[in-house]
């Protein structure tokens, strides 16, 4: 019985790791698709959309849709 539990646990961990990897890679939006610019700080006239596809420490700033 403990062998079956171990196999089930290993399969669940494997599936969870695959889901987390695929989720990050398949996110459809990035800063360029929103016509945004990666900056350290957004201008007052721009909307802040987080670090969508920008490098570490940069924010996605979109001036219009």
TrEMBL record:
Keywords: Antibiotic, Antimicrobial, Defensin, Disulfide bond, Secreted, Signal. The keyword Secreted applies. It is found in: Secreted. Residues 31-61 form the Beta-defensin domain. One of its GO terms (biological process) is innate immune response. GO terms for cellular component: extracellular region. Residues 1-24 form the signal peptide. Belongs to the beta-defensin family. Has antibacterial activity. This is Beta-defensin. It comes from Oncorhynchus kisutch. The lineage of its organism: Eukaryota, Metazoa, Chordata, Craniata, Vertebrata.
């Amino acid at each position: 019985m403990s062998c079956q539990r171990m196999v089930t646990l290993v399969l669940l961990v494997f599936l969870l790791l695959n889901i987390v990897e695929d989720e990050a890679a398949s996110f459809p939006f990035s800063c360029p698709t929103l016509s945004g610019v990666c900056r350290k700080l957004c201008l007052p006239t721009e909307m802040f959309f987080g670090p969508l596809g920008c490098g570490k420490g940069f924010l996605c700033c979109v001036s219009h849709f």
